[in-house]
Each structure stands twice: as C-alpha cells, then as structure tokens.
Design a protein that fits this description.
By secondary structure, the chain is an alpha+beta fold. It is 23% helix and 47% strand. The chain folds into 4 domains: 70 residues, Alpha-Beta Plaits, CATH 3.30.70; 73 residues, Ubiquitin-like (UB roll) (Roll), CATH 3.10.20; 72 residues, no CATH class; 62 residues, no CATH class.
C-alpha cells in the first residue's frame, strides 16, 4: 500500500486486547512500535473511523490534523450548527400575537393597529426602540379609546396588554360603601383609611358584620357618606384534611452516567444529543458564554424509582407540608399561620388520613355597596 495512505496512531488506553480487537475488525496492522505512552500502530487511513478508542494521530500535522479532527467531530459540529439556527429562530421569530382585553372591540382595534405597524405572525422581532415608537403611535392615534398600552416580548410571542380609556361620569353618586366581615373571627388589628370604625381589637365578629361604616355619624346624626376603605385583620380557624398513601416513591441512582451538551440563547435551551435513559437527573456546567449565547456540558445520571413506607417522622413532615400548601391557597399572601396542630391520624386501606388544625391571621374585610336613602339624597341635593 502507498505510504501516503498509511497513518501512525498512538492508542492512549492501550491493552493486550487491542491487537485482537483490530484484527477482528479487519484492520490491517503494518507495523507496531512500543513507546512509554503505549503502542504506535501503522494502519490504513480508511480504518481510523473503525477505532472507538482514545487515539492520537502522529502522522498528521498542520491543517491536515485539524481537518481530521473536524471530520471525526462532524456530527457534533453539525448538531451545534443546527441548534444555533434553531435557537436563533426561536429567539427572533414571532409566531403569535395575543391581545389581552375583555372587550372584542378593543382587541380588534389593537390587532388592526399592530398589523398596520408591521407587527404580525411570522415576523422578525423588532428592536426595543421600534416597539416604543409603535406603542406611542398607536396611543396617539386612539387617544379617546386607549389609556395605556404595553407590548411584552414573551419568547416567540408578543403579548399586548391594553387599558381602555373610560369616560369620566358627571353623574353624582347615589351609593356609599361599607366594609363587612367575610367570616367569623376575633379582631387582631386594623388600618382605616376612610370611613368610621365599627369594631375594636379583640372583638368577636360574625360573618357579615360591619367592620367599617361608610355612613359617617356624629352624635347619632349622619353627617356624610363615603366609600369605606381600610384593612382589618382577624384571627380565624381552619381544619385541613390530608390523605397520604402509606407507600411513597423514592429515587435510586444507578452507576449509568452520560455526558451531553446543550445550547442556550436567552431563555431557550436545546440539548444536542437525545438521552437514552428513561429517567434521569442532570447537572449542568457552563462551558462558553458569549452575550446571551451559552454552551453547557450536561451530566445525565440515570435513576430508577422504588417504593417504601413512610416513617412516622417522614409522614408528619409530608402531611404538614401539604396542609400548609392548602392553607396558603385559602388565605393568600397576606395571611399568616399563628398555630398548627395534628388533631388525629388514622390509617386504612394503605391510606393515612390526618386532620390538622390551624389558627390564622388574615384580612377579613370585604367592600359592599349601599344605597343612600332617598330622603338623604334630597337633603343634600344629589337627586
């Protein structure tokens, strides 16, 4: 064979089985030379692709070595290029325009204005300054209909939020507002901004009781009407029922791991190679960052799921976690837990049922409209 078609390779992870492996793969070995780093084999250029070991090519130099490296990594490089193109399209092309408003007339108006200003499906994203200019133009063209407008970049979608301009009514009000209790509670504290307090700290109130009056009185005589405003916090009580299977699923990690790569641009990210694990967790390490473009090395670790019984301590923790989540959904961000206690725990049919008591501090006020009595409206000249 022509020497130009031969290549010297150093197999870095050499072993006594390498020669048999090469011969079994029908790879001709023209020469073997032993070195301190491993054996150097002379083989044909065309057989390099058949070798799965970590090798170092000694015959190539200069640009030829780089071209060979590119050839061996061609699928990885192609994957990166395709992913970069996909990330660019995902980050720069708008596939949907969504106008958020409850009136069809306003939505139709905005869709038409956006279309006239070059904002539509399958368009390349506009610059921040272009968006600001379009917002200003649309508002100026519809001063009598639009109070406020915002165009939000949501990845591959523009979300348009709009507030309709409301006409100021000159009609005099015939109503006032009270704030009433939404539930039975003990008053803990209050902040009254408008209106007249009707309760004190530590008072027990029933659901529907008036907390803040919008009818302002002095010496039992009504002096004015207003829309009551304020915040009343009360101590309320709940019992949460939780059902938990006595068995729960846990993760058990195997020894199988795989290295992958992912490419990210802004908030979008795509993995280069498909994982062959059914279930796995990942650990990411950033390799390259250029502006908002990033390449990560991803370690995928396979796991299998198994079931086991809760211990008494685990059961209490899980039950309290679920109960707290339920109670927070009821009381909202302003509510806080004062006290909690497990009332009872019963197990049947592989299900554990727990009742958990909660003492809560939360806002209990709700504004309701009242009609101003007709005689009072006549007295004040509001009829």
């Amino acid at each position: 064979m022509n020497s130009m078609n031969k290549v010297d390779i150093l197999i870095l992870d050499d072993s006594r089985h390498v020669i048999n492996f090469l011969l079994n793969r029908k790879i001709n070995i023209y020469n073997i030379k032993a070195t301190s780093k491993g054996n150097v084999y002379t083989i044909s250029n065309k057989d390099i692709e058949k070798i799965p070991f970590d090798i170092k090519i000694l015959s190539f130099s200069g640009i030829k070595r780089y071209l060979y490296g590119i050839k061996r990594c061609k699928y990885f490089i192609i994957g990166i290029i395709i992913s970069i193109i996909e990330m660019f399209l995902l980050s720069h092309v708008i596939l949907e325009i969504d106008v958020l408003h409850n009136e069809k007339e306003i939505r139709d108006l905005l869709y038409e204005e956006l279309e006239n200003n070059g904002i539509h499906q399958f368009m390349i994203k506009k610059s921040f300054q272009d968006i600001q200019n379009i917002k200003t133009k649309i508002k100026n063209n519809n001063k009598d209909k639009i109070e406020w407008l915002e165009i939000i970049d949501d990845g591959m979608k523009y979300t348009v939020r709009v507030e309709k301009r409301e006409k100021v009514s000159t009609k005099k009000e015939s109503k006032f507002c009270d704030i009433i209790s939404t539930k039975d509670a003990v008053i803990l504290n209050s902040a009254i901004y408008r209106g007249q307090a009707n309760v004190d700290i530590n008072d027990f109130v029933k659901k529907g009781s008036t907390l803040i009056n919008g009818e302002i009185k002095f010496n039992e005589e009504t002096k004015a009407y207003t829309c009551a405003e304020g915040e009343i916090f009360g101590n309320t009580w709940y019992t949460v029922n939780i059902k938990i299977p006595s068995l729960h699923t846990i993760k058990r990690y195997t020894d199988n791991k795989k290295v992958n790569f992912s490419i990210g641009y802004k908030d979008n990210e795509k993995t280069i190679f498909k994982s062959h694990f059914k279930k796995y967790d990942i650990i990411k390490r950033k390799l390259i960052k250029i502006g908002e473009f990033k390449i990560y090395k991803v370690l995928e670790q396979e796991y299998v799921e198994a079931t086991q019984n809760y211990t008494s301590e685990e059961l209490t923790k899980v039950a309290l976690k679920q109960a707290r989540k339920k109670i927070k959904e009821k009381i909202g961000d302003k509510g806080t837990i004062i006290f909690e206690k497990v009332l009872q725990s019963v197990e049947y049919d592989s299900i554990i049922v727990m009742d958990i008591f909660y003492s809560i501090k939360e806002p209990i006020g709700e504004r309701v409209e009242r009609e101003i009595p007709l005689e009072r409206m006549q007295e004040n000249g509001t009829s």
